[in-house]
Request: fold
Amino acid sequence: MKRIEPVKEPLRGEVIVPGDKSIAHRAVILASIAQGRSRIFNLSGGDDNSRTVKAFRQMGVDIHRDGDALCVEGKGWKGLGAPKEIIDCGNSGTTMRLLSGLLAGRPFRSELDGDSSLRQRPMQRVIDPLSLMGAKIKSKGGAGLAPLEIEGGGLHAIDYRMPIASAQVKSAILLAALQAQGTTTLEEPLKSRDHTEVMLRGFGGEIAVNCKSIMIAGGQTLAGQDVRIPGDISSAAFFLVAAAMIPGSDVTIRNVGCNPTRDGVIHLLRQMGASIDLRHERAEAGEPVADIRVVGGKLKGVDVGGEWAARTIDEYPILAVAAALADGVTRFSDVKELRYKESDRIAAMTEGLQQIGVQVEEREDGMTIHGGNKLRRTRVRSFGDHRVAMSLAVAGLASDGGVEIDDAACVDISFPGFFDLLGKICLH
Ligand code: S3P
Reply:
């Protein structure tokens, strides 16, 4: 249980958030299949990323600390051996889906499992395209659910039109395609985060991208690199919203990855009336990075249609909190995908916000949130979902008497140290 006290003063100060979780998974994966040493700097330390590191250690890759770097001694594809034990992906959907693609091409048997949340998340979306490539993947949980048993090897290229925009599915196919005979082409319905494509090039891979279409040839080898991971915009989002919704606040978040496939939260907060400035724009690991300054004020409700879904996907829970504090109504539509995340985020945020006194209407594909409510003292459930826990914590800052979160330890999945950092910019 974690208690969040309401703030008495505007938020002020500077914060540095952990390294981007998505980018870090890809860095560990590409470094492990590359030839030569890679050094990865600014890895988050969150549980999800540690699962990916552990998975490659199980496959025999030498991954060790050297000062503030994580060193990966890649020996190419052949450096990966059959894991003796089941790979436990914990809560990490990215680990399970990306590794499904990678393992589908390796000539050995492996098994991927996860916690009770991950065992309920849809894996058929990776099983389908990988099976078309010739992979043999068995859903031991039945109905496309984990555990997944993979008998890898012998893949061939496909032309695939993805039914949903998912960077995890796209990346799983790309990792399989690298090992397949022939050239794979992919088409996404909306452009999802492109960290795999960006980093593949950084590791010397060849990939042709034309907006939502991708071409990638099999049989490629990669070369080890040094990678500095930018701060995670999905973690920065909690501070962006906290500062934006508390008038008089002035907070700068340093070194945040601002990839245009991830920056929906910045654009939507601006539409809501927030004052957000990007400073010192630069590039790190091929990714755009900036310091973000937010000045708090009054927000107003907005309509958020499906065109925002891909570039905002993990920020809906915290944007729902901004909507609760805004004047007017906010409608989130065409985001049924939120029901398949670490928790059913539409149901979880509806329950949490209603409990705090917000008028919320839940729909199959989204939520309508009536803003301008007084947030009351109460106890809420996180459903073990890190982003729900952190979002409700931010709501607690603006509540009358504080909010108690039943399970807040789950924040360690992506953001160890979240509560300390929040405390740093709050005067109670
Ligand atoms: C991720 C992609 C997104 C996102 C998840 C991380 C990734 O999932 O929600 O937190 O690292 O590729 P989907 O691919 O299911 O949209």
